Amino acid sequence: MHFISAMRQVRPESETDLPEVAKRVRQVFASDLEPHFVEEERYALPLLREAGHEALADEVFSQHEKMRAMDKALEHPTATMLVDFVHMLEKHVELEENEVWDVLDIALAEQDPGAAQNA
């Protein structure tokens, strides 16, 4: 995810830079992350629940909610808040890549076995 790479490069030179950095982070959150979260909540989380992975769906949703709260808190940013936000986003991406997408691939293949063969 290009957002994480960009966030790792963010190093405010002083506390006075924090509001502008946080503003840019919040803009990307609104334009990229929030729509992604909404799509996951609309499509992926119900599939996870249907496949019997309620706890995983709950964890994904919980992480979304934490990042939404962190985004809101960035209205009055600190350097620690920015670092914590990046770490939470990295944790979220890791969960998706290492668990969520594998479970969804299996669930979708079970729903439509022909699709897995044609993929």
Please give a structural write-up.
- The structure is a single chain.
- This protein has one domain.
- The chain has five helices and no strands.
- 15% of the residues are buried.
- The longest helix has 33 residues, at 18-50.
- Helix 2 (18-50) runs parallel beside helix 4 (79-111).
- It is mostly helical and 119 residues long.
- The radius of gyration is 17 Å and the shape is elongated.
- The mean pLDDT is 86.
Summarize the helices and strands and which ones pair or pack:
Layout: H1 2-9, H2 18-50, H3 54-73, H4 79-111, H5 113-118
What characteristics describe this protein?
single chain; 119 residues; mainly alpha; 0% strand; elongated
Strand content: under 5%
Which value, in Å, is the CA radius of gyration?
A: 17 Å
Dominant shape: elongated
The overall number of domains is 1
Largest sheet: none
Low-confidence parts: none
Element-by-element helix/strand order:
HHHHH
Class based on secondary structure composition and strand pairing: mainly alpha
Report the span from N to C terminus: 23 Å
Count of helical regions: 5
Work out the number of β strands. Answer: 0
Would you tell me the overall average pLDDT? 86
Helicity range = over 70%
Describe the structure in brief:
This protein is mainly alpha-helical and 119 residues long. It has helices spanning 2-9, 18-50, 54-73, 79-111, 113-118.
